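How it folds
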Amino acid sequence: MKPATSSIPLLGFAAWSGAGKTTLLTRLLPILRASGLEVALIKHAHHDFDIDHPGKDSYVLRQAGASQVLVASSRRMALMVENPPDREAAPVLSDLVARIDPGRAGLILVEGFKNEAIPKIEIHRPQLGKPLLCTDDLNIVAVATDQPEAIPQGTRVLPLDEVRVIAAFIGEYFGFSGLETDT
């Protein structure tokens, strides 16, 4: 697998399903944003998904055969791209990163794509009964967990429920200022 490359720093959040990736990110994003950092996010969806709704013009036009539909207003825009129905390949992170506007992002957070060769924070909840990813993935730079004693010695451990500590780690890791903890 070709590693994702970007002039914008990339940080992945990797975990087994149900560990709380989205929950952590929804708590982390406001802190990063409050520090003045513009953050883009790429999320891997494992299932067929749709952000468009039946009855909307964009949906009707896509269903009629448009392979790309860009919907834009003064507040937001969304690009929907139809992949051929016979396409079995998973999305390629480097292709998705190339679609991010570098003028509007100082950091790209990546949810999922746990096999990509990018720096990642693993979210680990031992009660899920899933193995640690950090034991086999040298790209994991820290593990956010609610049970630090379950993490191997020598691994950077972050408290899962202390989002400001995780934000400070990100600031330290990438050399961003303004992400220090209050303590």
Notes: The beta strands are 10-14, 39-43, 68-72, 77-81, 107-111, 120-124, 140-145, 157-159.
